[in-house]
Structures are given as structure tokens and as C-alpha cells.
Specification:
Strand content: 15-25%
Oligomer: single chain
Strand order of the largest sheet: 5-4-3-2-1-7-6
CATH superfamily of the largest domain: Glycosidases
Helix content: 25-40%
Shape: globular
CATH topology of the largest domain: TIM Barrel
Radius of gyration: 23 Å
CATH class of the largest domain: Alpha Beta
Length: 473
């Protein structure tokens, strides 16, 4: 055991002392990868999915990765599609031999993610269909004994690390469609054995359990899953426990916040700066797993994705953006183009994103409707305008100090400015390039004449439902 290594106990009082790792708070942008047997049918409806939670849980949903779950509901869109396309005698496991990953090149993935500006990546190692992407000793349903006949997680882990990306591993924790004794104490033993196998073999920087919300009727307490035990195990096995972290999807808890290091709203954001760290997770389209039905109109634009990233970072959060490869291991071109577009913006404006922290207020809006978001690093505040400014950018409630220097990222020369009462007026050159967002570095730190009030508290699951942030389904 390393000297002075802090050990954690399997209880709330001990685990709540752990904080999100510094690298995670500096990284801001990561890539999620949903890829598995469900990438063979690669199907989910693209219309009629804006329904209430209970209806969605019964077979109408935009997520292709829960194909097995949704096809089990007779007359659901998934069931109808499956019977019409493959026949009533074609079972989900008949897709496994078709999942061959013949064009899987994890080094190409890692290079793409790095060019996109991501600093970490999270791979789905097992989703709710119980098919493991590594050679688990606890089930024959794995990618070495079936389908691709290779350790897909090892290839991913090696490629991410060789390209200086932090490694995250997703593992379905509280929801399993295939396992016959779910939920039960034998199931808990099973997931503990597999989780430890993953952790001990690949030593991820980030462990990403999932689906505490998916248990029908009642969210099962984290105590059934012995979640605190697993979190403590993960922290303590690390060479430096302060450099690893876990998310919040470990089951229902009665503490002042969800169990874990940070919160993970899905396809949602925060209305202000919370007191805890968080990360939005979402697809580029409506699904996480590849959905062959999605077209251009179903995919979020580069500009919208940049705006989501900027908004999250201004509110003390990250963006974990998902790609869904095809069954053969290739990433669809439309998803590549979105990633490359974000990377192009970050190469110019990353100074305003990476390593920053939220300011005293997340942002404001100009009189002509241009949304402004703030970040801070050292003695510099970055004001990011989400639309192209005119001849002047008039930022309300901002007062620059004497000797302030302002520059537009991507340009070397300083910009002229003046103070007009409670507005900081920045003079904009005529020949600035078009951009998804415009980042202005202001130093030294100006005065902000408004501050964040009524910060979102540390939320429980029930709070999230009330606020409309619990959008997993």
C-alpha cells in the first residue's frame, strides 16, 4: 500500500469526502461510445417519441441501444419493426454472430476524438442486453467467445491511453434485460464480480455505472446493489484515489445528493451554477446507439453543440457527447463531421474552455439578444458571445478596470473598448471570421455587477423530476 494513500470506507460519510478529480474539471469535453450487439439492428423510431415516461418505458423510445428491452413489448414500434424485418422466430441473440466489428480501429477512434478536442472517452463495456465487450469469466455472452472474437475493451483502453486521453468505462449497474434473476442478490454478486474484473484489468480513470432510474415502479436503493462497497473498492484500488472518479448512477439514496462525484443529467442542462460538479450526457442525434433511421435533421449542428459545451462550462459542468459506431466498427460520416467541427472551434477557442472555472455569474444577454456566457482562468474572464456581434458588443453589468486588455481569441491584436455606464462596450473589427461562438479574453478580471443567486441545491432524484432535469427516458 502506497504511503499516505487515503483509503475510503464503504459508507456515505467516508465517500462524500471524495471530490471530482482535477483532470476531469479541467477537461470539460469527453466522448461517449455506445456500441454493441444493438448496433446490428441499429433501429429506433425517430417520430412519436415525445411521450410520457411510462409510455416510453413500454417500447416507444428514441434510443437504439435498448432495442432488446423495447422489442419485448408487443405492438410497440420496436416489436413491429423486428417482426416485419426479421420475423417472429428471430431472437435478439441471433444478432450476435452479425456483430463482427471487422473494421474496428480503436486508434483511429482515439485520433478522431483527440482532433475533436476531447480529453477523455467513455466506452460502453456492457449495456442492459448483458453482452460484455471484454472476455469476462462470469458469462459466455462476451465479445471474445461470440461475435467479434476479440477483446474490444482492451483495444479501446490501449488506444485512448496511447493518445493521451483519459479512460472511462461504462457498465450497466442497476438494469439488466437479459439476466433471468434480475434484480436479486445473486445478480448483485454477478455485477460486483464483473465490475471488479473490469476495474482490475483496465484500471479506468472514470467508472460510469448506469440505469438507477430504469427499475420499474420503484427505484431500488443503492444498498441492494452494495454500491458504496463498489465505489470504495474503485477508489482504493487506484494508485492515487484522488485522480479517479465515479458518476452518480448507483441507485436510490436518501442522502442530500445522489451518490457519486458528479451528477449526469441526460439531454438536459442546469438553469444556474450548482454547488456540485456535473456533466451533461447526450447523443449527437436522438439516440446513443447508432440508429440507421436518423437523418440530417435528427443530428444536432456543430453550432448547437458548441453552444451546449459553452453553456455547460459556464455553469460548472462538462459535456460528454456520444458517438454511435456501426456494427462493423466504423463511425458514421455525419458524426465525424460534427466532432471535427467542434475540434476546429476548440483549436481557436479552447483557452476559454479547458482548465477554466465558472465565474461569479454564468452569463447575461445583450440588448440585441446576443447570449453571453462567462468562464474564468487566473485573472482573466472569458466572455463568449453565441452569435456574431455587430460593430460593437455591449455587455451589460460588466465593468472593466483601468488598463484592461481585451482580445478576441484567434486574433493577436488587442481590441478597443470603452465603458458606457453599466455596459462594457467592445469595438469589433470588420474582418473577423465566422464562428460558432466568439470568445473574448478580458484581463484583469472585470467587475460583475450581478452575481449568481439562488444556486441550485444539491438535488435528489425527486427534485430532478420536479425540475424536469431527470430526462433519462
Amino acid at each position: 500500500m502506497e504511503e499516505n494513500k487515503k483509503l475510503y470506507e464503504a459508507n456515505w460519510e467516508s465517500l462524500k469526502q471524495h471530490k471530482p478529480a482535477q483532470w476531469f474539471k479541467d477537461a470539460k469535453f469527453g466522448i461517449f461510445v455506445h456500441w454493441g450487439v444493438y448496433s446490428v439492428p441499429a433501429w429506433a423510431p425517430t417520430a412519436g417519441c415525445e411521450l410520457d415516461q411510462n409510455t416510453k418505458l413500454h417500447g416507444t423510445h428514441p434510443y437504439a441501444e435498448i432495442y432488446l428491452y423495447c422489442m419485448r413489448f408487443r405492438n410497440s414500434p420496436f416489436w413491429k419493426h423486428h417482426v416485419e424485418t426479421y420475423g417472429s422466430n428471430f431472437h435478439y441473440d441471433d444478432f450476435i454472430p452479425m456483430f463482427r466489428a471487422e473494421n474496428y480501429n480503436p486508434d483511429e477512434w482515439a485520433k478522431l476524438f483527440k482532433e475533436a478536442g476531447a480529453k477523455y472517452s467513455v466506452m460502453v463495456t456492457k449495456h442492459s442486453d448483458d453482452f460484455a465487450m471484454w472476455p469476462t469469466a462470469y458469462s459466455d455472452r462476451n465479445a471474445v467467445q461470440m461475435g467479434p472474437h476479440k477483446d474490444l475493451v482492451k483495444g479501446f483502453a490501449d488506444a485512448m491511453r496511447s493518445n493521451d486521453l483519459k479512460l472511462g468505462l461504462y457498465f450497466t449497474w442497476c438494469f439488466n434485460v437479459y439476466y433471468s434473476h434480475y434484480p436479486s442478490y445473486p445478480y448483485t454478486d454477478y455485477i460486483h464480480a464483473q465490475a471488479k474484473e473490469l476495474i482490475d484489468t483496465y484500471h479506468p480513470d472514470l467508472f460510469w455505472p448506469d440505469a438507477e432510474y430504469a427499475v420499474p415502479r420503484q427505484r431500488v436503493p443503492a444498498s441492494l446493489w452494495r454500491s458504496e462497497e463498489m465505489i470504495a473498492y474503485f477508489y482504493n484500488q487506484a494508485k492515487n484515489p484522488e485522480e479517479v472518479l465515479v458518476n452518480d448512477r448507483w441507485g436510490k439514496v436518501d442522502n442530500a445528493r445522489l451518490l457519486g462525484d458528479y451528477m449526469t443529467p441526460e439531454y438536459a442542462s442546469m438553469k444556474g451554477i450548482p454547488e456540485f460538479y456535473w456533466e451533461t450526457t447526450r447523443g449527437i442525434g436522438r439516440s446513443f446507439g447508432y440508429n440507421q433511421m436518423e437523418g440530417e435533421n435528427d443530428y444536432t449542428s456543430v453550432k448547437e453543440l458548441v453552444h451546449i459545451l459553452v453553456d455547460n462550462v459556464s455553469k460548472n459542468g462538462n459535456l460528454l457527447l456520444n458517438v454511435g459506431p456501426k456494427a462493423d466498427g466504423t463511425i458514421p460520416e455525419i458524426q465525424k463531421q460534427r466532432l471535427l467541427g467542434i475540434g476546429k472551434w476548440l483549436r481557436i477557442n479552447g483557452e476559454a474552455i479547458y482548465g477554466t472555472r465558472h465565474w461569479v455569474h454564468y452569463g447575461t444577454e445583450t440588448e440585441d439578444g446576443n447570449v453571453i456566457r462567462y468562464t474564468k482562468k487566473g485573472n482573466t474572464v472569458y466572455a463568449m458571445a453565441l452569435e456574431r456581434p455587430g460593430k460593437e458588443l455591449k455587455i451589460p453589468y460588466l465593468m472593466a478596470k483601468e488598463g484592461t486588455r481585451i482580445r478576441l481569441l484567434g486574433r493577436e491584436q488587442e481590441l478597443e473598448w470603452h465603458q458606457d455606464g453599466r455596459e462594457l462596450v467592445i469595438h469589433i473589427p470588420e474582418n473577423i471570421d465566422d464562428s460558432e461562438a466568439y470568445a473574448f479574453a478580458i484581463s484583469p478580471e472585470p467587475y460583475c455587477l450581478i452575481e449568481e443567486k439562488n444556486k441550485p441545491k444539491i438535488l435528489t432524484v425527486d427534485d430532478l423530476q420536479v425540475m424536469g432535469l431527470d430526462k433519462h427516458w
